[in-house]
Amino acid sequence: MSRPLRTTAAALAALGLLTACGSSGSSSDAGGKTTVTFWDNNAGPARTPLYQKLIADFEKVNPTITVKYVGVTSSEVAEKYNTAIASNSTPDVGGVTTALLASLTAQKALDPLEERYAKSALNGKVSANFLEISKSASGGKGLYQLPSSGNQDVIWYRADKFKEAGLTAPRTWDELFAAAAKLTDKGKNQYGFTIRGGAGSGFQVLSEAYAYSGLTTMFDAGGRSTVDDPKNIALIEKIAAQYKATTPEADVSNAYPQMLAQFQANQVMMVHHNLGSTRDVKTALGDKVAGFLLPAGPDGTSVLANPVDGFGLFKNSKHKDAAWKFMEFLDSHESNSYWNQNVGQIPANTEAYADEWYTGSGITKQAGDSLNSAATKLVQPPVYLPQYSKITKTDAEPNFQKVLLGKTSAAEFAKSVADAFTKAQADYQAKNR
Amino acid sequence: MNRILRLFLPLALYLVFTVVPFYWMLLFALRPAGSTSLLPWPLTFDHFDTVWNGMGFRVYFQNSVWIALLTLVFVTFFALMGGYALARFRFRGQRAFLLALLCTQFVPGAMMLIPLFNIFQTFDLINSRWSLIIAETTFQLPLAMILMSGFVKNVPVELEESAMVDGCGRVRAFLAVVLPLLRPGIVAVGSFAFIGSWNNFLFALMFLNDPELQTVPVGLQTTIGENTVDFGALAAGGVVAAVPVVLVFAFVQKYLVQGMSAGAVKG
C-alpha cells in the first residue's frame, strides 16, 4: 500500500473510532426504573461524597428510583441553570440557595411546593423561619425551595490566644475592636482582625453594619434603602479604621481563602465568615478555635439572613413524584441531620435539633437558636431583585476597597449602595404591581 | 563571564519563573496532605489514587482523549480540504471569506452557548460527546484552515502540475505529492486542535451532564469547593491534565512554531 493510501486508511480507521463516542442517553425510564437527575449546586470535595452516600441510601430504600448525580460548582451553577432553562433541559431536582431562587422563579423554572409540602410527612418538621426565608427570597411568590440547611455569619477566633491574652469572646463591636488591638503585634506579623476586601466583601460589610445598627429592614416604608443609615455608616467607618491598624495590609484584596489561610497560619486572631467554614477551621485548628455570633451595637443587634440552602423541583421534570420523594428523603430527620453534621450547618429539619451532635455543637447550635428564635431581628436581603448580585458584588466590592484605601468615604460608599437598592426596588415594585 | 551575565543569567531566571509553578504542582501532588515540606518527601501517590479512582479522573481522562483525538481528526481533515482550496483556487468572494474566517475568532464561546445548546438539543446531542466534538471542530476550523493554507502555499504548485502532466488527477496528485509535504502542517494543526479541545471547559460543563461523559477540565473544577479546596487532589488532577499537553509540546514543538509562522507570514 502506498504511503498516501496508508494515510487515508489510517484516517478512515480513526473515523471508525467514532463508535466509541456514541451518545449517552439523558435520564430516562428503563426496566421499570425511574431515573431522577439531581444537580448539586455546590459540588466539591467536601459535599460530593456526602451526596453520594445519601443517594446510595435513598436507592436502597427506593429500588425503583435511580438518582443521577451531577456535580456543578457554586461558581458555575447560575450559568448552568440559566443555559438549561433557556434550552428546556433542566434537571428534575436541583440544589437551590435562596440567592439563586429569585432568578429561577423569575424564569418560571421551578414548581411551587406548598401543596406537596402540606401533604408530606415533613409538614411541620421543617423550620418555620427557614420556610419564611425561602418564601421571601422568591419575592413572596410562594414556596419554591425546600430548605435543607441554614447558615449564619459567625466570627471565628483563636480561643487559645484569647485565653493567653486574658480576653473573652467579645459581646459588642467596641469589645471586638479593643480585643483586636490588644492581639495585634505587627512585629510578629500578628493581627487581631481581618477585613474581607476582595470577593464577597459586599455582603459581609453589610452584615456587619446591620448587626451594629440593629436596623430590622433593608427598606423603609417609602421603599428607600436603609443601607446609608448613619448607624450603618458609623460601623463601616469603624471597620475601615481597622485596616492596617489591626488587620494585614493584604486584606484590601483578600477573599475567604486568603483570610482563612491567614487565620490558620497564626497571622490573624479573628475572622468573620459563616458556618460554611466550620469544617475547615475545626480541621485545621481543632480546639484552638471557637466562634461567636456577630456582636451587638449600641442599639442591640440584628441578623442579615444568610442564604438558606435547599432543593427545587424543576417544572420541566417528567418524574415529579419520584423527584419529590428524593427531596423528602434528603430533608428527612436522618438524612438532614447527617448532612448538616458533616457540613457544619444548621439543619432545616427540626427533629435534628435534639440530636447529640447538634446539642453539643457549640456555635452551630447557638447560630441555629438565633436563626430560629422569634426574638431575633432577621433582616431579609433583597435577593429577589435581579440587580442584587450586581449591586452587592460588581459595584460594592471595588467601592468598598476604595473606602479601605481612603479614596472614598464610608458615607459615599453606603449612599451608592443604598441608591442602587432603592432604584432596583422601585423598578421591581413597578413591574410586580 | 559577560556572556553568562547577559545571556544565561536572565535565561536561568526565566527558567525558574517558568518551572516553579510546575514544581509546586508536582510537590502538592506528591507530598502528603498537610505537609509543608519543600521536597516531595515522604513520597505519596495517594492524591493520584484519589483523583484517578475516587474522583473519576480515569473516566474523565478517557473521555478527554477520545474527544480531543476525534476533534483532531475532523479539524485536520477539513482544514486540509479548506486550506488547499484557499491556497490553490481563486473564487469570487475569497477575501470576504477569509475575513469572515478571521472574524469568527472574535466571537467568544460563551456567546454561542444558547444557540449551540438549542441546535444540539434539536439533534438530541445534549449529553453526548458529539456535541463537544462538533462544537470544538467548528470553533477551531477557521484558524486551522488559515494555517493550513499557509502550508499549502509553501508547496510549489509546479510539483502538482508535474504529477498531473504524468497522468494524475487532482485528488491523486494531492494525495501522492502534496500530502506528504504537508506533514509539518498536519502535525501543527492537529496539535493545536488536540490542545484546544483538551483544555476546553465551558462546552464540556454546559453540554455534558452525565459524570460518565465528563472531561478532565470539569473534573478539575470539582476539586475546588466553595469553602474547601483539596489541594492534593487539585495538583494531582493538574498533573493528569498537563501530561498530554506537555507531551504534545515536547514532541511536535518545532512543527508548532513552524505552524505559527506559516500562518503569520503566508496567511
Low-confidence stretches of chain B: 263-267
Order of SSEs of chain A: HEHEHEHHHEEHHHHHEHEEEHHEHHEHH
CATH topology call of the largest domain in chain A: D-Maltodextrin-Binding Protein, domain 2
- Into which percent range does the helicity of residues of chain B fall? over 70%
Strand content of chain B: under 5%
Defining key terms:
heterodimer, A: 433 residues, alpha/beta, D-Maltodextrin-Binding Protein, domain 2, 2 domains, 6-stranded mixed beta sheet, 3-stranded antiparallel beta sheet, 11 strands, B: 267 residues, mainly alpha, MetI-like fold, 76% helix, globular, disordered C terminus, sugar transport (chain A), membrane (chain A)
Please characterize this protein's 3D structure:
With 433 residues, chain A is of the alpha/beta class. Chain A has two domains: 34-151 and 307-372, D-Maltodextrin-Binding Protein, domain 2; 153-305 and 385-432, D-Maltodextrin-Binding Protein, domain 2, CATH 3.40.190.10. Helices cover 46% and strands 12% of the residues of chain A. Chain A has helices at 3-16, 48-61, 77-86, 98-106, 114-119, 128-137, 159-164, 173-183, 201-213, 230-242, 256-264, 278-285, 320-330, 333-343, 356-359, 363-372, 388-404, 410-431; strands at residues 34-40, 65-71, 93-97, 146-150, 153-158, 270-274, 289-293, 303-304, 309-313, 346-347, 378-379. In chain A, the strands form three sheets. In chain A, strands 2-1-3-9-4-10 form a six-stranded mixed sheet, with helices on both faces. In chain A, strand 1, helix 2 (48-61) and strand 2 form a beta-alpha-beta unit. Chain B has 267 residues and is mostly helical. Chain B has a single domain, classed as Orthogonal Bundle (MetI-like fold). Chain B contains twelve helices and no strands. Chain B has helices spanning 2-30, 46-54, 57-88, 94-104, 113-122, 129-154, 157-165, 170-181, 183-199, 202-207, 216-221, 231-266. In chain B, helix 2 crosses helix 12. The relative contact order of chain B is 0.15. Mean pLDDT of chain B is 88; it is low at 263-267. The chains are: A alpha/beta (433), B mainly alpha (267). At the A-B interface, helix 1, strand 2, helix 3 and helix 11 of A face helix 3, helix 5, helix 6 and helix 8 of B.
